[in-house]
Amino acid sequence: MRASGATHTADATTAEEGLAIQEAQAKFDSDTATGLAMQNTLLTPRFYTTDFDELDAIDVTSVRDIWDELIAEMQADPNKGHFKKNEDWDHVDWDGMEPELKKEFIDFLVSSCTAEFSGCVLYKEMKRRGANPDVTGLFQLMARDEARHAGFINDALREAGVAVNLGFLTKAKKYTYFRPKFIYYATYLSEKIGYARYITIFRHLEAHPEYRFHPIFKWFREWCNDEFRHGEAFALLMKTDPRLTRGGNVLWIKFFLTAVYATMYIRDHQRPAFHEALGVDTDWYGHEVFTKTSEISKQIFPITLDIDNPRWTANLKRLRQANTDLTEAADRRGPGGMLARLGARIRAGMFFARLYLVPAKHHEVPDNPRMEPGY
Ligand SMILES: [Fe+2]
Ligand SMILES: [Fe+2]
Fold first, then answer.
1. CA 140, CA 137: separation in Å to the nearest integer?
2. pLDDT digit string, tens, across residues 349-365
3. What is d(CA 55, CA 46) in angstroms, rounded to the nearest whole number?
4. Residues 324-345: pLDDT tens digits?
5. Count of beta carbons in the 10 Å neighbourhood of residue 349
6. Is the four-CA dihedral 174, 178, 180, 181 of positive or negative sign?
7. Which residues, by range, are in coiled-coil regions (predicted)?
8. From ligand 1's centre to the CA of 374, what distance in Å?
9. Which ligand is nearest to the CA of 198?
10. 269 neighbors 284 (Cβ within 8 angstroms)
11. Which of these, 232, 261, 264, 321, is most buried using a 10 Å CB contact count?
C-alpha cells in the first residue's frame, strides 16, 4: 500500500511506503551488491534486534519539553522530497571510471546503503512492536528518513548497473541481538559519526568542487542534518535514565567509542583510491571526524577518547596492520595460512585491548543535551 501515492522513496512519508517502492524496483537489482551487503564480519554493517519491550517502557517525562521540540522538527519533515535525482544530478561516467576507484566507490555505496537500511529495519521494527506513543512516534520518523537515505543510495547504484535488494536483505540477513543500552550507545554513535563523516566530506567538496567525482555528495548537507537529529533523539533517550551514562556503563561507552572509531579507521584505509579521488588524506579525514564526533558526544557521554595521545595513534595503526595481514592470510591455504590468520587475530585483539586501555578524557555533561549542527 502506498499511502500518499508517492512513486519515489524521497516522497514517501513512512518507511513501509518507501520500501514498497524499492521492492518494485528490486527485479533490476544485482546479486553481487546484495552479496556484499549480506556479509557479516566485524567490520561490515550489521542488522540488529533488541528487547523491544524494554525500549517501549522508556518514559520521556524528564525531558518532555526538549523531546517535543525535536519531534516537532522531525514531523515538519524539512527533507521531504529532497532525496531524489534532479537537475543537480550530473551525468556519471561509470564506464570511464578508473576500475580501482569504481570498485572502492561501489563498495562505499553498498556499505553506506546497508548501514542506512540497518537503521531503517531496526527503527521500523521498534515502531511496529511498541505501544508507547513517544517511542513509536520517534522510531517511525527515523525509519522514514533511513528508508529515503537507503533508497537514494540505491538509485545511485542502479546507474552503475548494481543495487542492493533491500527486500531480500530484510528476510535473509542475520540479525545480531543487542541489549537496549548497547543499541543506545552504538546507534547514537553511528548517527553522530555519520553526521560528522557526511559534513566533513560536504565541506571539503564545497571548498574543492573539482574533486566531486559523483553528484551524490551534493546531497550530503541535508542528509547529515537528518543523522544529526537521529543522534539527538538517542541522546535524549539516554538522558531519561542517568544510570546509562555513569558507573560501570562508562566502560561500555569507552568500548563502543573505541570499536566505532577503530572500525571506521580500518574501513576507510581499505579505500585508498576513493579517498585520493576525493582529494582527502585518509588520516586527516579520520582525525577530523573523530574530533567532531568527540566534541558532539560530550553532550551525553562523560568521557571522550584521547585521540591525540601518541599511544592511541600507534595502536590504531598496528590494529589496522593486523587487519590487513588477516585479509591477506584469508586466501592462503594449508596450515601456513591458518597460522597466519591465528597470529593476525591474536595481534588484532591485543592492539584493540591496548587501544581500549589508553586513558580517556573526563568532563562534565550539560543538563540539557540538545545541540544544533555546527559544522
Ligand atoms: Fe541515514
Ligand atoms: Fe540516521
1. 5
2. 999 999 999 999 999 99
3. 20
4. 999 999 888 899 999 999 999 9
5. 12
6. negative
7. none
8. 18
9. 1
10. no
11. 232
CA of 24 to the centre of ligand 1 (A): 21
Give the class (CATH, top level) of 9-309.
Answer: mainly alpha
Three-state DSSP at 175 gives: strand
- 77 alpha carbon to ligand 2 midpoint, in Å? 14
Please report which helix (H) or strand (E) contains residue 364, including its range: none
d(CA 264, CA 262): 5
Amino acid making up residue 287: H
pTM surpassing 0.90? yes
Helix (H, G, I), strand (E, B) or coil at 1: coil
User: How far away, in angstroms, is 170 Cα from ligand 2 center?
Assistant: 18
**Spatial contact of 288 and 202, defined as CB atoms under 8 Å apart:** no
Q: What is the pLDDT of residue 169?
A: 87
Placement of cell 601456513 in the chain:
336
The three three-digit cell numbers of residue 329, written as one number: 592470510
Residue ranges per structural domain of the chain: 9-309
Question: How do residues 209-255 score in pLDDT, each as one tens digit?
Answer: 999 999 999 999 999 999 999 999 999 999 999 999 999 999 999 99
Q: Which ligand is nearest to the CA of 222?
A: 1
Could you tell me how far CA 184 lies from the centroid of its own chain? 13
The closest alpha carbon to 109, from 231, 260, 219, 232, belongs to: 219
- Between 367 and 40, where is the model more confident? 367
* Cell reading at 79: 527533507
Distance 17 CA to ligand 2 centre (A): 18
**Ligand 1 mean position to 113 CA, how many Å?**
9
Residues with CB in 5 Å of ion ligand 1: 116, 146, 149
Closest CA to 46 of 199, 187, 144, 157: 187
Residues 6+ apart with CB under 8 A from 304: 257, 294, 297, 298, 360, 361, 363
